Amino acid sequence: MATAISVSGRRVECTDDQSMLEAFLRAGIWMPNSCNQGTCGTCKLQVVCGEVDHGGSPLDTLTAEERAAGLALACQARPLAETEVALRGEEMGRTTHVLRDLTATVVEVEEIARDTRRVLLGLEEPLAFSAGQYVELLVPGTGERRQYSLANTAEEDKVLELHVRRIPGGVASEWLFGAAAVGDRVEVRGPLGDFHVPDADEDDGEPMVLIGGGTGLAPLLGIARTALERHPDRTMVLYHGVRTAADLYDTDRLAELAATYRGFNLVTVLSRESVPGHRSGYAPDAFVDDIASARGWSGWLCGSPALVEAGVKAFKRRRMAPRLIHREKFEPADAVGAGN
Amino acid sequence: MTTTQQAGKQDLSWLDDVTMTELERNPYPTYERLRREAPLAFVPVLGSYVASTAEICREVATSPDFEAVITPAGGRTFGHPAIIGVNGDIHADLRGMVEPQLQPAEVDSWVDDLVRPIARNYVEQFEDRGRAELVAEYCEPVSVRSLGDLLGLQSVSSDKLREWFHKLSVSFTNAGVDENGEFTNPDGFTPGDEARAEIQAVVDPLIDRWIEHPENTAISHWLHDGMPPGKTRDREYIYPTIYVYLLGAMQEPGHGMASTLVGLFSRPEQMEEVVDDPSLLPRAISEGMRWTSPIWSATARISTTPVTITGVDLPAGTPVILSYGSANHDTGKYDAPTAYDLHRPPLPHLAFGAGNHACAGIYYANQVMRIGLEELLEAIPNLERDTGEGVEFWGWGFRGPTSLHSTWEV
Ligand code: HEM
Ligand code: FES
Question: Which residues form the signal peptide (chain B) (predicted)?
């Protein structure tokens, strides 16, 4: 006889002669444990649903109150029914914005840089999200879904702003750079993703550096504007890395932001050409040259996997705490699965 | 021919040549051969039987036919009744004395406030320097300051606490004996004797004070908790256990942090993973404890009745040293045990012992190590081992890196 138990979305079989800990460990799922005899408390976890027999758990290690609160010692407990557990310290029941399926209307399609368009999608009812999250579009007539970050702040909840880069042969490009017209209807699912500003009460106004590659600028626009509204004096540097000056966009919009918020700076970085007024090279290198220490800063990276990885290295090199490094790897939406 | 017979007939004369110096420098080759040829064997230089595999360590540590005994060098260093060497009512009383402060729920209520500021303070002293020797400047200080404050030894400097555990440690493991069972290096106990005298000179007045005015410090609780009103535990009764703390509990979280760092440095990609996701630290530390067990071979059990273990007949009253550091390299249980690997199949290890004498401080020790490494890697995410300097491990009874030079860009 075996009973199913699960943790962090992974499900394993626990046989009658196994503790939950043993079943997880044998399945290669690590969880904290030390004594394996119920005396140290290291393996304490939360039963989220289901039922367990506490077995030999001593009252000293697992008090009556803790049992009542649904805690258990993994090394002693056996499941009596299908059971789901969560490790302590794992975020439990954190509220997130509800994932929804909506129908949107194309309000505007604008060419903003070479092979780059801004698409505005009108919603009939507002969508709740956090600045930085993304949505999925069902590309009309294809059954394919493509992911696009929102450039909006949470207040801009009725017209979604997406930045789209043309991918030759990509299904979404074919549509957005081809037949798409104002008034078209399109299915949208969202919000998704964990790349977003913290809740206002967890935002203590620390300095921020944001690095966006190409249309990876989109979520950073929502994040930067939200963070500056909250703490108008905060230090913030935004690096926009592109190949050539023709790939830059929204520089006026960002210059306006710099005029409003004195702590905000925009740095444009061109990797394939040298143009006065712009830095040459790669954005993470520009950051390393500019900022001597990012200790206490938070960092935001959105772009190709290579850019994000280089950014993480640069941030750590300048001693930013990794828990404050946020990353969004942005495979050009169309390239993903374009061949499927 | 069965394996048992084979084991019984093994020629173990090579064991006569094993020296203390060799074991302290690197015990692994000797123990690897022991595990293969005689997982329960009499080792002449130690004057004792030694259990070297996971199975036999666990069996002896949890067997009803064995009870605890302190090693001769340990007994010489700590005196009686040290918690690690007593049984029955005295052991129950001493466990009952130390356990309340070490219960997980209790530890959770103060450990972050205790350890995090201490860890931050030590990091701040070198974070802008770009280099540090992490054993002496971080791992040991964080470990001793945290426990020192918990015990009520705020007045004793971290350097003094480090000096004490070093001195107690070399005495405790001064285990070498001759064929008559006499210590071969009696002078080796001098450091421990010096430390004990100093400790008493500092702790006696504190005890005097706590007897009159109880405080919320561990030693004050040890004096008063569970005693009838107006009575306190005798100081001579608790001193040996104070020494257990001032040695093992002071030293091992530092060893544990340092070994985990060396292990991670040996796998740069795993170091990077842990730096990026500090929630992996408990697992990294657990593997660090397995890889280089801080209490490598320091506690023992003694048979209370004639027993046969893996074909070896032991009369009643036979001591067996538990070499947990060897058990944790048992190839019967772990693939490539000499490699540090954050992602190895997560099987339990024996670094904290087993049975009713298993470590009482597991939960607390794990939290100290976690918080210590969290703060270090948060402040210095670009930490690297200084490859211009070697890393040397030392110790048979207790084991860890003697130094760990590191650098980073500032
Ligand atoms: C990483 C750090 C530590 C390790 C690896 C460790 C490991 C061990 C081991 C192997 C034993 C002997 C178990 C046996 O004989 O089966 C032990 C005993 C003990 N440890 Fe720890 N320990 C650590 C830290 C601590 C700390 C911080 C404390 C207290 C705050 C502590 C308190 C004790 C006590 C009281 C005993 C004696 C238990 C008894 O004999 O009943 N330990 N420890
Ligand atoms: S591992 Fe120690 S209580 Fe479960």
Answer: none
Say what the pTM is: 0.90
The closest CB to that of A37, out of B127, B275, B358, belongs to B358
Ligand 1 centroid to B351 CA: how many Å?
9
CATH number of A200-330, picked from 3.40.1010.20, 3.40.50.2000, 3.10.310.40, 3.40.50.80: 3.40.50.80
Sheet holding B319-322: strands in order across? B40-43, B48-51, B319-322, B299-303, B66-69
Cβ neighbour number for residue B232 with a 10 Å cutoff: 19
Q: Closest Cα to residue A240, out of A215, A222, A259, A203?
A: A215
Phi-psi category of A85—alpha, beta or left, where left has phi over 0 and alpha has psi -120 to 50?
beta
Q: Which atom of ligand 1 is nearest to the CA of B98?
A: 35
Complex confidence, ipTM:
0.83
How many folded domains does chain B comprise? Answer: 1
* Contact state of B362 with A36 under an 8 Å Cβ cutoff: no
